[in-house]
Specification:
Layout: H1 3-6, H2 13-42, E1 53-54, E2 57-58, H3 59-82, H4 95-104
Antiparallel strand pairs: 1-2
Helix pairs in contact: 2-3
Length: 105
């Protein structure tokens, strides 16, 4: 059932951009979650006496923390390149432009 066609509404271009941004965010979140969960649950699934230590931290903790520090900047760069500003008004014009046109009429 397509409510846009059923009620004769126009599809908003901002919705398509918001959907694209949501997908980018969710993919980034899933990648980071898999990385941290892998090292947190699988990497720590051994006897603590046999842990390997890196800079004083257990390897599983160090890899989870390093992964987070590496993945965050990558996510920020990807999102900075792919996310666009869009106007918040329904007609797609900036607030200043819309106010100016109203006063001219």
């Amino acid at each position: 059932m397509n409510l846009i066609k059923e009620y004769g509404l126009k599809e908003d271009k901002r919705m398509a951009q918001a959907t694209k941004e949501l997908i980018i965010f969710l993919i980034s979140f899933v990648i980071l979650s898999i990385w941290v969960w892998y090292w947190g649950f699988v990497g720590a699934n051994q006897d603590p006496l046999t842990y390997t230590y890196i800079l004083g931290f257990p390897k599983w903790f160090f890899m989870a923390a390093v992964g987070t520090v590496v993945v965050y900047p990558i996510c920020l760069v990807v999102q900075a390149l792919l996310i666009k500003d869009c106007p918040l008004t329904a007609d797609g014009k900036e607030e200043g432009e819309a106010d100016q046109q109203k006063t001219e009429k």
